[in-house]
Amino acid sequence: MMHARHIELLQRQQHLLARSAALRLRLANQAQVLQAPLAVIDQARAAAQWLRGHPQWPLGALVLLAVLRPQRAMRWASRLLWGWSLYQKMQQWLNRLPPQPL
Fold first, then answer.
1. pLDDT (tens digit, 0 to 9) for every residue of the chain, 102 residues total?
2. Same-domain status, 19 and 38
3. 47: number of Cβ within 10 Å
């Protein structure tokens, strides 16, 4: 009796392991679609982190633009201000969302 149960459990384990492997392969195939967009997001995030760590470069470019082309600088400054305010509003909105369970 115990031996038959043990064999049954081993067969069940093998079945579950095979199913798990098949599901992992299917998930890997489906995840390939997301690979390119996620790579772009990773690059954008790395660029944003670099800009936060080196604020002198975008500020220097903005000053140079303001000296060489004042009208264009005003246009870009208004766009940047709009973008910054949108970013802050999104951060506030995201902070108000309840935390997601893991």
1. 678 889 999 999 999 999 999 999 999 998 888 888 989 999 999 999 999 899 899 889 878 888 889 898 888 889 989 999 999 999 999 888 888 776
2. yes
3. 10
